[in-house]
Amino acid sequence: MKTVQKLIPVSLYDIPGLEAWLEEQANQGLFPTHLGFWATFEDTGVPGTRFRLEPWGKMGNEPPPEQLELYRQAGWEYKAILCRPYVLFYTTDPDAVELYTDWESRGMSLERLEKETRIYSGLRMTRWVILAAAILLFLILPRSSHDVQPVSFASLPMVLLLLFHPVILLFLLWATLTFRRWRRNRTALKNTCRALRAGLPPPPSPGSSRAIVREQLLILILIPVLVIGWILLSAETHRDLAIPVEDFSRPYVTLQELEQEPVYPSEEVFEEHSIFDEPENYAEINFSLLSPVWYAVTQEGYSPTPGAMENANSPNPEGGKYRYAPDLDMTCFHLLIPTLAKPVARAQMDSYRLVNLWWEYEEIPHPGLDFVILATVKDEPWQMAAVGKDGKVAVFRYAGVERLEDHLDLLSKMVT
Amino acid sequence: MPGRDKGGLTEPMYYVLMSFLHGEMCGIEITDFVSQKTAGRVRLGPGTLYTLLAKFQEEKLIEETQVDGRKRTYRITDKGRDAFREELERLKACVLDGEEELR
Questions:
Q1: In terms of pTM, does the model score above 0.90?
Q2: A64/B contact by beta carbon, under 8 A
Q3: A170 and A360 in contact (C-beta within 8 Å)?
Q4: Under an 8 A CB cutoff, do B46 and A108 touch?
Q5: What part of B 73-92 touches A (C-beta under 8 Å)?
Q6: What is the 3-state secondary structure (H, E, C) of A166-203?
Q7: Under an 8 A CB cutoff, do B48 and A71 touch?
Q8: Per-residue pLDDT reduced to its tens digit, A286-323
Q9: Contact in structure between A335 and A393 (CB atoms under 8 Å)
Protein backbone atom coordinates (compact mmCIF):
# COMPACT_ATOMS: atom_id res chain seq x y z
CA MET A 1 0.00 0.00 0.00
CA LYS A 2 1.43 3.34 -1.06
CA THR A 3 1.35 6.33 1.26
CA VAL A 4 1.45 9.95 0.19
CA GLN A 5 2.22 13.02 2.30
CA LYS A 6 0.81 16.42 1.47
CA LEU A 7 0.84 19.78 3.16
CA ILE A 8 -2.67 20.94 3.96
CA PRO A 9 -3.47 23.98 1.79
CA VAL A 10 -6.39 25.28 3.87
CA SER A 11 -6.79 26.62 7.38
CA LEU A 12 -7.31 23.83 9.89
CA TYR A 13 -10.42 25.64 11.12
CA ASP A 14 -11.86 26.25 7.68
CA ILE A 15 -13.97 23.10 8.15
CA PRO A 16 -15.87 23.18 4.82
CA GLY A 17 -12.60 23.94 3.00
CA LEU A 18 -10.77 21.08 4.69
CA GLU A 19 -13.62 18.65 4.00
CA ALA A 20 -13.73 19.72 0.35
CA TRP A 21 -9.96 19.24 0.02
CA LEU A 22 -10.19 15.72 1.50
CA GLU A 23 -12.96 14.94 -0.99
CA GLU A 24 -10.74 16.17 -3.83
CA GLN A 25 -8.03 13.79 -2.62
CA ALA A 26 -10.54 10.92 -2.47
CA ASN A 27 -11.43 11.63 -6.09
CA GLN A 28 -7.73 11.11 -6.85
CA GLY A 29 -7.84 7.75 -5.04
CA LEU A 30 -6.37 8.92 -1.74
CA PHE A 31 -7.73 8.19 1.72
CA PRO A 32 -6.45 10.11 4.78
CA THR A 33 -4.72 8.23 7.59
CA HIS A 34 -3.28 11.21 9.41
CA LEU A 35 -4.17 14.88 9.54
CA GLY A 36 -1.93 17.21 11.45
CA PHE A 37 0.64 19.65 10.27
CA TRP A 38 0.57 17.69 7.05
CA ALA A 39 -1.74 14.98 5.77
CA THR A 40 -0.85 11.37 5.08
CA PHE A 41 -2.91 9.36 2.61
CA GLU A 42 -3.14 5.76 1.50
CA ASP A 43 -4.05 4.88 -2.05
CA THR A 44 -7.35 3.35 -0.99
CA GLY A 45 -9.57 6.36 -1.61
CA VAL A 46 -12.92 5.92 -3.33
CA PRO A 47 -14.06 8.72 -5.64
CA GLY A 48 -17.21 10.37 -4.39
CA THR A 49 -16.44 9.79 -0.72
CA ARG A 50 -17.82 12.51 1.54
CA PHE A 51 -15.78 13.51 4.59
CA ARG A 52 -17.09 15.33 7.62
CA LEU A 53 -15.03 16.64 10.52
CA GLU A 54 -16.42 16.60 14.03
CA PRO A 55 -14.79 18.17 17.08
CA TRP A 56 -13.16 15.79 19.52
CA GLY A 57 -15.18 14.53 22.43
CA LYS A 58 -14.86 15.97 25.91
CA MET A 59 -11.29 15.90 27.32
CA GLY A 60 -9.98 14.93 23.88
CA ASN A 61 -11.62 11.50 23.97
CA GLU A 62 -12.79 9.56 20.97
CA PRO A 63 -16.51 9.78 20.14
CA PRO A 64 -18.71 7.82 22.56
CA PRO A 65 -20.18 4.52 21.30
CA GLU A 66 -23.74 5.86 21.11
CA GLN A 67 -22.61 8.64 18.77
CA LEU A 68 -20.73 6.16 16.59
CA GLU A 69 -23.82 3.94 16.51
CA LEU A 70 -26.10 6.80 15.49
CA TYR A 71 -23.71 7.83 12.74
CA ARG A 72 -23.17 4.25 11.58
CA GLN A 73 -26.92 3.70 11.30
CA ALA A 74 -27.08 6.79 9.08
CA GLY A 75 -24.31 5.40 6.85
CA TRP A 76 -21.33 7.26 8.25
CA GLU A 77 -18.16 5.44 9.28
CA TYR A 78 -15.65 6.63 11.80
CA LYS A 79 -11.99 6.67 10.92
CA ALA A 80 -9.77 6.54 13.99
CA ILE A 81 -6.92 8.73 12.79
CA LEU A 82 -4.80 11.33 14.42
CA CYS A 83 -6.58 14.49 13.44
CA ARG A 84 -6.65 17.09 16.19
CA PRO A 85 -8.88 18.95 16.84
CA TYR A 86 -11.28 16.75 14.90
CA VAL A 87 -12.44 13.21 14.41
CA LEU A 88 -13.19 12.11 10.90
CA PHE A 89 -16.36 10.52 9.53
CA TYR A 90 -16.84 9.47 5.95
CA THR A 91 -19.40 7.83 3.73
CA THR A 92 -19.33 6.44 0.23
CA ASP A 93 -23.14 6.25 0.15
CA PRO A 94 -24.46 9.17 -1.93
CA ASP A 95 -27.89 8.81 -0.25
CA ALA A 96 -26.59 8.99 3.33
CA VAL A 97 -28.25 11.90 5.09
CA GLU A 98 -25.91 14.77 5.96
CA LEU A 99 -24.59 14.67 9.52
CA TYR A 100 -26.14 18.06 10.21
CA THR A 101 -29.46 18.93 8.70
CA ASP A 102 -29.65 22.43 10.14
CA TRP A 103 -27.03 25.09 10.66
CA GLU A 104 -27.89 25.82 14.28
CA SER A 105 -27.21 22.29 15.49
CA ARG A 106 -23.93 22.35 13.56
CA GLY A 107 -23.13 25.58 15.39
CA MET A 108 -23.94 23.93 18.73
CA SER A 109 -21.63 21.03 17.92
CA LEU A 110 -18.76 23.50 17.51
CA GLU A 111 -19.46 25.44 20.73
CA ARG A 112 -16.98 23.52 22.85
CA LEU A 113 -14.28 23.69 20.20
CA GLU A 114 -14.81 27.44 19.93
CA LYS A 115 -14.68 27.82 23.71
CA GLU A 116 -11.51 25.72 23.99
CA THR A 117 -9.92 27.73 21.20
CA ARG A 118 -10.87 30.96 22.96
CA ILE A 119 -9.33 29.74 26.23
CA TYR A 120 -6.21 28.54 24.42
CA SER A 121 -5.95 31.90 22.65
CA GLY A 122 -6.28 33.69 25.98
CA LEU A 123 -3.54 31.54 27.49
CA ARG A 124 -1.36 32.13 24.49
CA MET A 125 -1.80 35.89 24.69
CA THR A 126 -1.16 35.78 28.45
CA ARG A 127 2.08 33.87 27.81
CA TRP A 128 3.28 36.51 25.35
CA VAL A 129 2.30 39.34 27.71
CA ILE A 130 4.18 37.65 30.60
CA LEU A 131 7.21 37.14 28.36
CA ALA A 132 7.12 40.79 27.23
CA ALA A 133 6.75 41.95 30.85
CA ALA A 134 9.65 39.72 31.93
CA ILE A 135 11.87 41.15 29.18
CA LEU A 136 10.89 44.68 30.18
CA LEU A 137 11.59 43.96 33.85
CA PHE A 138 14.92 42.40 32.91
CA LEU A 139 15.81 45.60 31.08
CA ILE A 140 14.67 47.90 33.88
CA LEU A 141 15.63 46.05 37.02
CA PRO A 142 19.20 46.19 38.36
CA ARG A 143 21.31 43.13 37.66
CA SER A 144 21.93 42.46 41.31
CA SER A 145 20.73 43.63 44.70
CA HIS A 146 24.32 44.80 45.24
CA ASP A 147 24.17 47.07 42.18
CA VAL A 148 25.15 50.50 43.47
CA GLN A 149 24.84 52.24 40.10
CA PRO A 150 21.91 50.68 38.24
CA VAL A 151 21.08 52.08 34.80
CA SER A 152 17.67 51.18 33.39
CA PHE A 153 17.66 50.07 29.76
CA ALA A 154 21.48 50.20 29.69
CA SER A 155 21.57 46.89 27.85
CA LEU A 156 19.05 47.98 25.20
CA PRO A 157 21.65 48.46 22.41
CA MET A 158 23.02 44.96 23.15
CA VAL A 159 19.48 43.59 23.01
CA LEU A 160 19.14 45.27 19.62
CA LEU A 161 22.32 43.58 18.38
CA LEU A 162 21.13 40.23 19.73
CA LEU A 163 17.76 40.69 18.04
CA PHE A 164 19.62 40.86 14.75
CA HIS A 165 21.31 37.54 15.37
CA PRO A 166 20.22 35.24 12.51
CA VAL A 167 18.83 32.62 14.94
CA ILE A 168 16.76 35.23 16.77
CA LEU A 169 15.54 36.69 13.47
CA LEU A 170 14.55 33.21 12.28
CA PHE A 171 12.78 32.64 15.58
CA LEU A 172 10.89 35.92 15.16
CA LEU A 173 9.96 34.90 11.61
CA TRP A 174 8.76 31.52 12.91
CA ALA A 175 6.79 33.22 15.71
CA THR A 176 5.20 35.63 13.21
CA LEU A 177 4.21 32.81 10.88
CA THR A 178 2.72 30.68 13.66
CA PHE A 179 0.90 33.73 15.03
CA ARG A 180 -0.52 34.47 11.58
CA ARG A 181 -1.61 30.86 11.20
CA TRP A 182 -3.20 30.87 14.65
CA ARG A 183 -5.02 34.14 13.90
CA ARG A 184 -6.29 32.85 10.54
CA ASN A 185 -7.53 29.64 12.17
CA ARG A 186 -9.22 31.52 14.99
CA THR A 187 -10.89 34.00 12.63
CA ALA A 188 -12.14 31.16 10.40
CA LEU A 189 -13.66 29.31 13.36
CA LYS A 190 -15.14 32.47 14.86
CA ASN A 191 -16.79 33.51 11.60
CA THR A 192 -18.12 30.00 11.00
CA CYS A 193 -19.60 29.75 14.50
CA ARG A 194 -21.12 33.23 14.32
CA ALA A 195 -22.89 32.42 11.05
CA LEU A 196 -24.10 29.01 12.26
CA ARG A 197 -25.44 30.44 15.52
CA ALA A 198 -27.51 32.86 13.47
CA GLY A 199 -28.90 29.92 11.49
CA LEU A 200 -26.87 30.87 8.41
CA PRO A 201 -24.55 28.70 6.36
CA PRO A 202 -20.86 29.07 7.19
CA PRO A 203 -19.01 31.70 5.14
CA PRO A 204 -17.70 30.28 1.86
CA SER A 205 -14.28 28.70 2.16
CA PRO A 206 -11.47 30.65 0.53
CA GLY A 207 -10.34 27.25 -0.80
CA SER A 208 -6.86 25.84 -1.24
CA SER A 209 -4.08 28.37 -1.12
CA ARG A 210 -0.46 28.10 -2.18
CA ALA A 211 0.40 30.81 0.33
CA ILE A 212 -0.77 28.53 3.17
CA VAL A 213 1.32 25.65 1.80
CA ARG A 214 4.39 27.88 1.55
CA GLU A 215 3.80 29.14 5.08
CA GLN A 216 3.41 25.58 6.46
CA LEU A 217 6.56 24.49 4.64
CA LEU A 218 8.54 27.41 6.02
CA ILE A 219 7.33 26.72 9.58
CA LEU A 220 8.32 23.05 9.21
CA ILE A 221 11.77 23.87 7.83
CA LEU A 222 12.38 26.50 10.49
CA ILE A 223 11.78 24.09 13.39
CA PRO A 224 14.96 21.95 12.95
CA VAL A 225 16.95 25.02 11.91
CA LEU A 226 15.93 26.76 15.13
CA VAL A 227 16.70 23.72 17.27
CA ILE A 228 20.24 23.57 15.84
CA GLY A 229 20.53 27.36 16.18
CA TRP A 230 19.50 27.29 19.83
CA ILE A 231 21.99 24.50 20.56
CA LEU A 232 24.77 26.57 19.00
CA LEU A 233 23.63 29.72 20.82
CA SER A 234 23.54 27.98 24.18
CA ALA A 235 26.96 26.45 23.45
CA GLU A 236 28.24 29.99 22.89
CA THR A 237 26.87 31.16 26.23
CA HIS A 238 28.40 28.18 28.00
CA ARG A 239 31.86 28.89 26.59
CA ASP A 240 31.81 25.59 24.76
CA LEU A 241 32.86 27.46 21.67
CA ALA A 242 35.60 29.50 23.36
CA ILE A 243 38.77 29.64 21.28
CA PRO A 244 42.16 29.62 23.01
CA VAL A 245 43.85 32.97 22.26
CA GLU A 246 46.84 31.23 20.70
CA ASP A 247 44.49 29.90 18.00
CA PHE A 248 42.64 33.18 17.56
CA SER A 249 43.65 35.14 14.47
CA ARG A 250 41.63 38.36 14.77
CA PRO A 251 43.35 41.50 16.08
CA TYR A 252 43.31 42.17 19.79
CA VAL A 253 45.37 43.99 22.40
CA THR A 254 47.45 41.53 24.34
CA LEU A 255 47.76 41.88 28.07
CA GLN A 256 51.54 41.96 27.76
CA GLU A 257 51.38 45.00 25.47
CA LEU A 258 49.84 46.93 28.39
CA GLU A 259 52.18 45.69 31.08
CA GLN A 260 55.68 46.99 31.87
CA GLU A 261 56.76 43.75 33.54
CA PRO A 262 56.38 40.32 31.98
CA VAL A 263 53.25 38.32 32.75
CA TYR A 264 52.50 34.76 31.69
CA PRO A 265 49.48 32.51 31.42
CA SER A 266 48.78 30.43 34.50
CA GLU A 267 49.90 27.17 32.90
CA GLU A 268 53.36 28.62 32.34
CA VAL A 269 53.67 29.96 35.89
CA PHE A 270 51.95 27.22 37.88
CA GLU A 271 52.36 23.51 37.55
CA GLU A 272 48.68 22.91 38.17
CA HIS A 273 45.91 24.09 35.87
CA SER A 274 43.32 26.63 36.87
CA ILE A 275 41.15 25.42 39.74
CA PHE A 276 38.07 26.46 37.76
CA ASP A 277 38.97 24.07 34.94
CA GLU A 278 38.11 26.75 32.40
CA PRO A 279 40.40 28.48 29.95
CA GLU A 280 41.65 31.83 31.26
CA ASN A 281 42.80 33.21 27.94
CA TYR A 282 40.21 32.73 25.29
CA ALA A 283 38.21 34.44 22.60
CA GLU A 284 34.52 34.22 21.82
CA ILE A 285 32.95 35.11 18.51
CA ASN A 286 29.49 36.52 18.34
CA PHE A 287 27.49 37.74 15.38
CA SER A 288 24.75 40.16 14.57
CA LEU A 289 23.59 41.41 11.22
CA LEU A 290 24.10 44.89 12.71
CA SER A 291 27.63 43.98 13.75
CA PRO A 292 29.12 41.32 11.47
CA VAL A 293 32.38 41.62 13.41
CA TRP A 294 31.78 41.09 17.12
CA TYR A 295 34.18 39.25 19.32
CA ALA A 296 35.51 39.28 22.85
CA VAL A 297 38.91 38.32 24.20
CA THR A 298 39.58 37.53 27.83
CA GLN A 299 43.10 37.37 29.17
CA GLU A 300 44.66 36.82 32.55
CA GLY A 301 48.37 36.89 33.27
CA TYR A 302 50.57 36.12 36.24
CA SER A 303 53.83 37.59 37.29
CA PRO A 304 56.58 34.96 37.44
CA THR A 305 57.65 36.45 40.78
CA PRO A 306 55.51 35.33 43.70
CA GLY A 307 54.40 37.96 46.13
CA ALA A 308 55.97 40.79 44.17
CA MET A 309 52.88 42.97 44.24
CA GLU A 310 49.75 42.76 46.27
CA ASN A 311 46.63 42.34 44.24
CA ALA A 312 43.46 41.30 45.95
CA ASN A 313 42.05 40.13 42.65
CA SER A 314 44.62 37.46 42.10
CA PRO A 315 44.12 33.92 43.35
CA ASN A 316 46.14 32.78 46.31
CA PRO A 317 47.94 29.76 45.03
CA GLU A 318 51.02 30.01 47.22
CA GLY A 319 49.95 29.88 50.80
CA GLY A 320 49.18 33.51 51.44
CA LYS A 321 51.69 35.26 49.20
CA TYR A 322 49.87 37.39 46.65
CA ARG A 323 51.12 37.38 43.10
CA TYR A 324 50.51 40.19 40.62
CA ALA A 325 47.81 38.93 38.25
CA PRO A 326 46.36 41.54 35.89
CA ASP A 327 43.48 40.77 33.60
CA LEU A 328 42.11 42.33 30.46
CA ASP A 329 38.77 41.83 28.78
CA MET A 330 38.12 43.31 25.40
CA THR A 331 35.09 43.36 23.12
CA CYS A 332 35.25 44.59 19.58
CA PHE A 333 32.37 45.59 17.30
CA HIS A 334 32.26 46.64 13.66
CA LEU A 335 28.80 48.17 13.45
CA LEU A 336 27.02 48.73 10.18
CA ILE A 337 25.19 51.72 11.65
CA PRO A 338 27.84 54.13 12.99
CA THR A 339 25.31 56.06 15.13
CA LEU A 340 25.02 52.95 17.26
CA ALA A 341 28.71 53.11 18.16
CA LYS A 342 28.50 55.13 21.35
CA PRO A 343 25.29 53.50 22.72
CA VAL A 344 26.82 50.06 22.09
CA ALA A 345 30.07 51.14 23.78
CA ARG A 346 28.09 52.36 26.80
CA ALA A 347 26.08 49.15 26.91
CA GLN A 348 29.20 46.99 26.74
CA MET A 349 30.80 49.07 29.50
CA ASP A 350 27.68 48.55 31.58
CA SER A 351 27.87 44.81 31.05
CA TYR A 352 31.55 44.87 32.07
CA ARG A 353 30.79 47.01 35.12
CA LEU A 354 31.38 45.33 38.50
CA VAL A 355 28.09 46.26 40.10
CA ASN A 356 29.25 46.64 43.69
CA LEU A 357 31.75 49.37 42.76
CA TRP A 358 31.04 53.03 42.06
CA TRP A 359 32.34 53.95 38.63
CA GLU A 360 33.23 57.43 37.45
CA TYR A 361 32.86 58.03 33.73
CA GLU A 362 34.69 60.62 31.73
CA GLU A 363 34.68 61.38 28.03
CA ILE A 364 37.93 62.75 26.66
CA PRO A 365 39.04 63.76 23.17
CA HIS A 366 41.72 61.83 21.36
CA PRO A 367 43.12 62.54 17.91
CA GLY A 368 41.70 60.27 15.20
CA LEU A 369 38.90 58.90 17.34
CA ASP A 370 35.21 59.80 17.49
CA PHE A 371 35.05 59.20 21.21
CA VAL A 372 36.95 57.88 24.18
CA ILE A 373 35.09 57.01 27.36
CA LEU A 374 37.06 56.18 30.48
CA ALA A 375 35.67 54.66 33.64
CA THR A 376 37.56 54.31 36.87
CA VAL A 377 36.92 53.22 40.43
CA LYS A 378 38.52 55.13 43.27
CA ASP A 379 41.16 53.08 45.12
CA GLU A 380 40.49 49.99 43.04
CA PRO A 381 42.57 48.45 40.23
CA TRP A 382 39.56 48.20 37.90
CA GLN A 383 39.26 50.45 34.87
CA MET A 384 37.32 50.52 31.66
CA ALA A 385 37.85 52.29 28.36
CA ALA A 386 35.79 52.49 25.22
CA VAL A 387 37.14 53.84 21.95
CA GLY A 388 35.16 54.42 18.78
CA LYS A 389 35.79 55.46 15.22
CA ASP A 390 33.02 55.40 12.60
CA GLY A 391 31.24 52.10 13.25
CA LYS A 392 34.20 50.43 14.97
CA VAL A 393 34.11 50.13 18.73
CA ALA A 394 36.46 48.50 21.21
CA VAL A 395 35.66 48.29 24.91
CA PHE A 396 38.22 47.23 27.49
CA ARG A 397 38.06 46.24 31.13
CA TYR A 398 41.33 46.01 32.91
CA ALA A 399 42.56 45.26 36.42
CA GLY A 400 46.22 45.96 37.02
CA VAL A 401 48.73 48.63 37.81
CA GLU A 402 48.69 50.38 34.41
CA ARG A 403 46.39 53.28 33.49
CA LEU A 404 44.37 52.68 30.37
CA GLU A 405 44.40 56.42 29.68
CA ASP A 406 48.15 56.18 29.13
CA HIS A 407 47.70 53.51 26.46
CA LEU A 408 45.07 55.11 24.26
CA ASP A 409 47.31 54.92 21.19
CA LEU A 410 47.55 51.17 21.66
CA LEU A 411 43.81 50.76 22.31
CA SER A 412 42.85 52.95 19.35
CA LYS A 413 44.61 50.54 16.97
CA MET A 414 41.57 48.32 17.38
CA VAL A 415 39.32 50.84 15.64
CA THR A 416 41.57 52.66 13.19
CA MET B 1 -37.66 29.81 26.74
CA PRO B 2 -35.96 27.08 28.78
CA GLY B 3 -32.87 25.82 27.09
CA ARG B 4 -32.63 28.71 24.63
CA ASP B 5 -30.96 31.99 25.26
CA LYS B 6 -32.97 33.78 22.60
CA GLY B 7 -35.93 32.97 20.36
CA GLY B 8 -37.79 29.70 20.32
CA LEU B 9 -36.75 26.14 19.65
CA THR B 10 -35.51 25.36 16.17
CA GLU B 11 -37.68 23.06 14.10
CA PRO B 12 -35.48 19.98 14.69
CA MET B 13 -35.41 20.80 18.43
CA TYR B 14 -39.17 21.11 18.50
CA TYR B 15 -39.76 17.76 16.82
CA VAL B 16 -37.10 15.92 18.82
CA LEU B 17 -38.67 17.17 22.05
CA MET B 18 -42.11 16.28 20.72
CA SER B 19 -40.99 12.71 20.05
CA PHE B 20 -40.54 12.11 23.79
CA LEU B 21 -44.20 12.91 24.49
CA HIS B 22 -44.88 9.35 23.34
CA GLY B 23 -42.58 7.86 25.95
CA GLU B 24 -39.01 6.73 26.14
CA MET B 25 -37.13 6.88 22.86
CA CYS B 26 -33.75 5.93 21.46
CA GLY B 27 -31.92 7.69 18.61
CA ILE B 28 -33.24 5.67 15.68
CA GLU B 29 -36.82 5.83 17.05
CA ILE B 30 -36.59 9.62 17.27
CA THR B 31 -35.34 9.86 13.67
CA ASP B 32 -38.17 7.62 12.46
CA PHE B 33 -40.76 9.52 14.47
CA VAL B 34 -39.71 12.90 13.10
CA SER B 35 -39.55 11.61 9.55
CA GLN B 36 -43.04 10.06 9.77
CA LYS B 37 -44.58 12.98 11.63
CA THR B 38 -43.38 15.52 9.08
CA ALA B 39 -43.83 13.19 6.09
CA GLY B 40 -40.14 13.45 5.38
CA ARG B 41 -40.11 17.25 5.42
CA VAL B 42 -37.81 17.40 8.44
CA ARG B 43 -34.85 15.05 8.18
CA LEU B 44 -32.62 14.60 11.18
CA GLY B 45 -28.97 14.07 10.48
CA PRO B 46 -27.17 11.95 13.06
CA GLY B 47 -24.95 14.86 14.01
CA THR B 48 -27.94 17.11 14.54
CA LEU B 49 -29.71 14.47 16.62
CA TYR B 50 -26.66 13.65 18.73
CA THR B 51 -25.95 17.34 19.35
CA LEU B 52 -29.57 18.05 20.31
CA LEU B 53 -29.75 15.07 22.67
CA ALA B 54 -26.53 16.21 24.36
CA LYS B 55 -27.86 19.77 24.60
CA PHE B 56 -31.24 18.67 26.00
CA GLN B 57 -29.51 16.46 28.55
CA GLU B 58 -27.19 19.27 29.56
CA GLU B 59 -30.21 21.56 30.07
CA LYS B 60 -32.14 18.79 31.82
CA LEU B 61 -34.98 18.78 29.30
CA ILE B 62 -34.49 15.01 28.89
CA GLU B 63 -32.78 12.33 30.93
CA GLU B 64 -31.20 9.00 30.14
CA THR B 65 -33.18 5.99 31.29
CA GLN B 66 -31.43 2.98 29.88
CA VAL B 67 -28.12 2.00 28.34
CA ASP B 68 -28.18 -1.22 26.39
CA GLY B 69 -24.81 -1.68 24.78
CA ARG B 70 -24.51 1.13 22.24
CA LYS B 71 -28.21 1.96 22.48
CA ARG B 72 -29.30 4.70 24.85
CA THR B 73 -32.87 5.55 25.75
CA TYR B 74 -34.10 8.90 27.02
CA ARG B 75 -37.31 10.36 28.44
CA ILE B 76 -38.60 13.89 28.75
CA THR B 77 -38.42 15.68 32.13
CA ASP B 78 -41.01 18.07 33.59
CA LYS B 79 -38.76 20.92 32.57
CA GLY B 80 -38.69 19.54 29.04
CA ARG B 81 -42.47 19.21 28.95
CA ASP B 82 -42.80 22.84 30.10
CA ALA B 83 -40.36 23.93 27.41
CA PHE B 84 -42.34 22.11 24.77
CA ARG B 85 -45.67 23.63 25.97
CA GLU B 86 -44.14 27.06 26.03
CA GLU B 87 -42.90 26.65 22.47
CA LEU B 88 -46.26 25.31 21.38
CA GLU B 89 -47.99 28.38 22.82
CA ARG B 90 -45.53 30.63 21.05
CA LEU B 91 -46.10 28.89 17.74
CA LYS B 92 -49.90 29.04 18.21
CA ALA B 93 -49.63 32.76 18.85
CA CYS B 94 -47.50 33.11 15.73
CA VAL B 95 -50.09 31.24 13.65
CA LEU B 96 -52.99 33.27 15.08
CA ASP B 97 -51.16 36.51 14.40
CA GLY B 98 -50.54 35.44 10.84
CA GLU B 99 -54.13 34.33 10.23
CA GLU B 100 -55.52 37.55 11.68
CA GLU B 101 -53.41 39.57 9.31
CA LEU B 102 -54.49 37.46 6.34
CA ARG B 103 -58.20 37.99 7.00
A1: no
A2: no
A3: no
A4: no
A5: none
A6: HHHHHHHHHHHHHHHHHHHHHHHHHHHHHHHHCCCCCC
A7: no
A8: 899 999 999 999 999 988 877 655 555 555 545 545 67
A9: yes
